[in-house]
UniProtKB/TrEMBL annotation:
This is Histone-lysine N-methyltransferase SETMAR. Transmembrane segments: none annotated. One of its GO terms (molecular function) is nucleic acid binding. Residues 12-51 form the Mos1 transposase HTH domain. Residues 62-81 are annotated as: Disordered. It comes from the Eukaryota. InterPro entries: Mos1_HTH (IPR041426), RNaseH_sf (IPR036397), Transposase-MT_Hybrid (IPR052709), Transposase_1 (IPR001888). PANTHER family: MARINER MOS1 TRANSPOSASE-LIKE PROTEIN (PTHR46060). Pfam families: HTH_48, Transposase_1.
Length: 244
């Protein structure tokens, strides 16, 4: 990666453009190398293409062509230095707050300031300069994803805690598989309960009321205690196994 040159002149940048153009380098690649070497504000993409066109037409001069009309009097060194000092003292200064003296030309063309952060493509709140330090970007880290757990208990305590893999949710097939594990947990932790019969209460969520789930419950003869959503003492996700 090229070392960033912080101090440069327009003639130096144009000389590099001419050199690379003579090597048959594409304008897009020239702009990329200019940005990497001198900074984003050294020369815009359109300006690189313009200079490549001029060099292709036989131009050899790197200086600015004299313009017709009134001579420049406001973009002298004194005014340029004054505008530069104003901006460096207050990077949030609006351009209309600077005394008018072809300010736009001094700020943008002579000093090379801009208010568009080209790396982020949105309007910046402060003036940028080719020698301004690169803004550090904070890496956004994803927060920990939620996991879902199913808990079954009775008056004696928790019988089964079933935690789903991260990013998964309870489906009918998964719930029936959980009921299989619950049946085995009851056999180990509550001897005799399966023989006497299990009374289960769960809400009317789709995995609980699906045909596959109902067939499982009927196959093993488990009784379903009606769910009363108006009873505020029971949480909607409560699973209770009762010993009849």
């Amino acid at each position: 990666m090229a070392t960033l040159i912080k101090e440069w002149s327009k003639l130096e940048v144009r000389a590099v453009v001419r050199f690379l153009f003579s090597k048959r380098t594409k304008p897009s690649e020239i702009h990329k190398q200019i940005a990497e070497t001198f900074g984003e504000g050294a020369m815009s993409r359109s300006r690189v293409y313009q200079w490549c066109t001029w060099f292709g037409e036989g131009r050899t001069s790197l200086g600015d062509e004299p313009k017709s009309g009134r001579p420049k009097t406001s973009t002298n060194e004194e005014n340029t230095t004054r505008v530069d000092e104003l901006i460096r003292c207050d990077r949030r200064m609006k351009i209309r707050e600077i005394p008018k003296s072809t300010v736009h030309e001094i700020v943008h063309d002579t000093l090379g300031y801009w208010k568009v952060d080209k790396a982020r493509l949105h309007q910046s709140m402060t003036w940028k300069h080719p020698s301004s330090p690169v803004t550090k970007k904070f890496k956004v880290q994803r927060s920990a994803a939620k996991v879902m757990a199913t808990v079954f208990w009775d008056a004696k305590g928790v019988i089964l805690l079933d935690i789903l893999p991260q990013g998964q949710c309870i489906s009918t097939a998964r719930y029936c598989s959980t009921l299989d594990r619950l049946k085995e947990a009851i056999r180990r932790k509550r001897p005799g309960l399966l023989r006497r019969g299990v009374v289960l209460q769960h809400d009317n969520a789709t995995p609980h009321s699906a045909n596959l789930t109902q067939q499982w419950l009927q196959r093993y003869g488990w009784e379903i205690l009606p769910y009363l959503p108006t009873v505020q003492t029971w949480h909607p996700l409560t699973f209770i196994c009762l010993d009849p």
